[in-house]
Amino acid sequence: MAHTDVLDLPLVLLSNRGPVSFGRDSAGRTVNRGAGGLVSALSGLAEHLDDAVWVCGAATEEDAVVAREAAGKALHVQTLPVPHLVDSAFGDASADGGSNKPADGPSIKIRIVETDPFAYADFYSVWSNPILWFIQHGLYGRAYSPDFTQAEHEAFENGYAAVNRAYADAVADEVRARGGKALVLLQDYHFYLVAEHVRQQCPDVVLTHFVHIPWPGPDEWRVLPADIRERLLTGLLGSDVVGFHTRRYARNFVLCASELLGLPIDLDAMTINVGDRVVRARYYPISVDPAALDATLASEDVAAHVSMLRYIFLGDDRQLMLRVDRTDPSKNVVRGFQAFRTLLEQHPELVGKVSFLALLQPSRTDVPEYADYIALIGGVVAEINARFTKDGRQPIDLRMVEDFALAIAAYSICDVLVVNAIADGMNLVAKEVAVVNGRGGVLALSETAGAHEELGEHAVTLHPFDLQQMADAFYSALTMPLEERHRRLAAAAEQVRTHDVARWLSDQLADLRRIAGFA
Ligand code: GDG
């Protein structure tokens, strides 16, 4: 078949967590679709194209069983459709003919890669989290950095590098099975070495690597041993495009190529010369799927949560502050509560009037830094609640839950959403609140979250380390005239609705179309 568009090419996707994961109940094997805009957007694309495969890791024990049964082959899985995304992002540019999909509904082809558990532990719990995640979120500095002993070096070779090779081999295998030319979309910080391996095996691929977390400047990367940071950068430069959420991250990447690898760059054009190839750094702010959020908001489950939350937190001029995050040190939960404590100390009239609901999802608890962080959060919450409880009402309601419907319900009725991350690639929670809030909710948004570039002018800006500034910003959000609150929220919602996740993907495809010579 002639390739007249980049979407005529076969598609190979790679991410650590796949679009579906398998479980078991009394009736047998279950299939669960992953949550979130990224999975919906990329699943929509993969389901829409006939010759697409998604390479991913085993997230559950049952995934590993499925991977063993499949013995290195890809398999089709029935999924739920996401038609509005398909229509808006991909138009009718799909390939046709030659489909081997089951006839009775949408399906996605996945290939689960199972790796040695020790190698995976070094890959995931030593190198990806915390080392790379911490460096890229500014959680390590020169004074507080990991020691790179022989153990860390070995964990890099036997873990990060070995697992990257295994995934790259699976991707290359799928590309070769499709004639050696494919559109390859790699996701995130787990796979910085994959692009180079794939290009070595399949030089004709069109390849984008999207980095979902911040990319700091060259000096921050100097915390890493020189040979390792050079290998990570060189690995990524196997891509045609390295994508980021913001211009700042993309620019930092180009500067790293110049300063840490000595490669020729053009900072205005955001290009890097690698031999006879040109690698482009680009930015595509990820976003949410507003139609899916609207549908969730309209569900009975959410309505029941809304009634309960209103009953507990609102009425009688009371106000609700909210945060929704994984328990990740980058989210800066402890300082957020410390600033809230300052607010209550300096404005005692708010005690008993303002509640702070924190919906925190326990995350990466097998990594010691993350487990310790949960204990720190518990300590500061207990101290504030002991000091400021009034009329039986505790100021902070901390819930360690995984409950997306509850999160949406809380988004819809909060007065202030707090995002005070030390660094955050984008932060989708802020965009979700902008879409579903119906109460003139004010976004209190860290200046270092990627979302601040698009939504900052409609938000109250937070400085993640300045506790007094944060307390003042909370106060101004809580006391802002209602009319101004609604005006700002409407502007933020408009920005998100016109820059949704379908656009995130279609902008990337439009660039690839040009780069690959289809436009
Ligand atoms: C990384 C980057 C970047 C909330 N409660 C539950 C739940 N959520 C959803 C939220 C939101 C998502 O989880 C969290 O996304 P964020 O973007 O806020 O943060 P990260 O998880 O750190 O994501 C980030 C993102 O990748 C995309 O590129 O924006 O900067 O760090 O959608 O609504 N999901 C489930 N249960 C809950 O209880 N399943």
From TrEMBL:
Example GO BP: trehalose biosynthetic process
Keyword vocabulary terms for this entry: Glycosyltransferase, Transferase
Pfam families associated with the record: Glyco_transf_20
Documented EC number(s): 2.4.1.15
InterPro entries: Glyco_trans_20
GO molecular function: alpha,alpha-trehalose-phosphate synthase (UDP-forming) activity
CDD domains xrefs: GT20_TPS
Family: Belongs to the glycosyltransferase 20 family.
Protein name from the UniProt record: Alpha,alpha-trehalose-phosphate synthase (UDP-forming)
Organism: Pseudofrankia inefficax (strain DSM 45817 / CECT 9037 / DDB 130130 / EuI1c) (Frankia inefficax)
